[in-house]
Specification:
single chain, 1 helix, 6 strands
């Protein structure tokens, strides 16, 4: 996953709100984060799935990971939220 261009320096990385440890859960490769486990976004729901959820027949149980990064810029702590997940 590519980091936004304005994000640099030391980072705190969270997947689904859980702190990740560099070297154990992910590694930095240039301006990208490479995770040890597979991450995925659910994507758009089709009409049938949407209607079945609305009717209470089915829920959404697909993997829907969220990656947030805390970084410092100009002396302030900032957060880049719900970064796009790309697959190679």
């Amino acid at each position: 996953m590519e980091l936004p261009p304005h994000v640099s320096g030391d980072l705190e990385v969270f997947v689904n709100g859980v702190a990740q440890v560099e070297g154990r859960d992910y590694r930095r490769q240039g301006n990208a984060l490479v995770f040890q486990r597979s991450l995925a976004k659910e994507g758009r729901l089709g009409t049938i799935r949407w209607l079945s959820m609305l009717a209470g027949v089915a829920g959404t149980y697909r993997q829907n990971d969220s990656v947030d990064v805390v970084y410092e810029s100009g002396g302030k702590r900032l957060v880049a939220t719900d970064l796009p997940i790309k697959h190679d």
